[in-house]
Fold:
Amino acid sequence: MLAENNEDILPWYCEELSRGLRQLCHEDPGADSLITPRWEEVISLLARYIAEIERFNPIWSLVGTNDRRELVIRHILDSLAPLGIISRKITAYHLPRIADVGSGAGLPGIPLAVALPQVQFTLIERMGRRAGFLRGALTALGLSNTVIEEKEMEKTMPGRFSLVTFRAFRPLEPKNFKKLFRLCGEGGILAAYKGRRSKTEAEMAALETALPNMAGRWELIPCPVPMLDEERHILFIR
Structure:
């Protein structure tokens, strides 16, 4: 069960986070170059963020678990698993801007914003209570590179972002794909957090049938989550 006293959980989180992040850095030099020079700061900010989730999850159902280890692995480390890949993708942009659509509890946007302080993030969340949580979390963490837009993605000003992330948001159906892509600027990319390769490839095959010009415009890259024995991929669509 999640601890009631946040002070009691911080040492445990620091230990578990450290183990997972060290594995991630060992397997991906790109993630290593971003995390290791700021190690203590990153651990501290992520532990503080986890404490905020624990504090408000029973009230607002931010994440679908009340298990400590699952929160760290399936939400925080899962969000950071493609960190090195994403950082390489945005190097082409002079001033990269990332949107996290349907941000919910701030996943993957807040962990990525902690690890990429030089990048501007926008968390797009339509539900007022979750947007309220996000505002409180940003204040608690002091993240100056992140803003919140409390609105439907359809009402967000289009064409502003280098990369648009989403995790457990909506299926990649043609109508949803078009709504997501309108947020991208010229040369922008969608980055979808996905599980099994076979399921994602089937999803993309159906999308190519509906939108033939999609062929050759997507890339599926493995991004294993530390301490999780399940398939994870990041899907990029240009």
